[in-house]
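[User] Once you have settled down, look closely at the record that follows, and write a paragraph about the fold.
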Amino acid sequence: MHPLPPLPKQPPPPTQPPLLKQPPLLGQPRFRAFYAGRLVSLLGSSMAPVALAFAVLDASGSAHDLGVVLAVHMLPLLALLLVGGAVADRSSRRNVLVAAHLGSALTQGGVATLLLTGHYSLFPVAVLEFLNGALAAFTTPALRGVLPQLVDRSRLQQANSLLGTARNATKILGPSLSGVLVVAVGSGPAIAFDAFTYLLAAAFLARLTFPGENAVAGDTSAPPRKAAATTVLTDIRDGWTELRAIRWVWVGTLSFCLMNLAQTGTWQILGPQLTRQISGEATWGFVLSARGIGLLVSSLLMYRLVVRHLLRLGQLTSALAALPLLAIGARLPAPWLLAAAFVAGLGSAVTAVSWDTSLQEHVPPQVLSRVASYDDLLSYVAIPVGQLSVGPLAEACGAFHVAAAAGVVSAAAAILPLASRAVRRLPHARAAASETAPAAPGPAGAV
């Protein structure tokens, strides 16, 4: 028998081109302009509370005046959040942001003018701060909705990480810088600087351009935003319908509402008081600094971390925010309290990045600002309720017992949403993109 001829050589299977390395987010002009605007605005906003507090106290000598000014800023923010979400979804988010920042520059500039010219009066300052709070109600939902228009869906986590880093860094730097400015040149110039940062931020945001005003970056399938065929009230109702229809969103929103109800007021009111009893007044400042460092470190780490179920991780880490209250309730010494505050900061930053990213990845872009406004409203409105409740509860049950109970309730509220499969199994776009992309050299893999 003649041997069979050798089989012809098969061509090697086609190899996929290696995954192209994406340029850094800050190397992209649109995101860089947005980030610059947010950075200067956050710096001014972190300085403003200290400057405003000293300005009102110095000019009036009245803690009552300061309470009025702070309250009239918060009330319109809560009252108009839903309107702000509807406006952001039915019009250009860039234009909303530019107009709101310009308005904030005018209101803060007005306060600074009254102080610098020696014409302080409670009524005009309160009116200007009321308008500033109203403008913030339009800014917050638009900021949540605009980011998916600027970056690819798979890079939203990285974008939120960078924004979180800026926010947490300015929280640490801003109050100290404001204090130095107040001592050096007075509170009026410090508030004038805040007005200038709003103006500069508006200039950066005005440079934003979008291929499609309602399209998520890279997604041309997004339907165009509805024109003014519907009323704002109808759009607000539609936003509530959308919130209720997405199970993981309303479960998570309810969780944050309960956490703020139990935790925020207790931390703000009982935290400094009980820490002073345990370890002295200086410890409270160190505790806040430890938490701030944890926030900053974690927001930096979130730029690299890739997980399959980002929302699940964020819900787990949100329970860590209860640790400082549990430590105070147990009367643990200062080193333990500092460690608890640092770990709480780590967990809180993960939660913030994971929640914002999940909303931006999975909520339809044409309703994102409205859904986000409901999320913000339900979270914010719980804070004053908790603040008003904590005093009477502490008198009736004991402050240390209330702190411990608040920690337990907050941790339970954080973990409870994990009973929902919709929360546990929500996929993360960045992990999905890394799993479907061709393998690249170096350490990789989602966890």
In short: Confidence is low (pLDDT under 50) at residues 1-20, 213-224, 439-447. The longest helix spans residues 247-279.
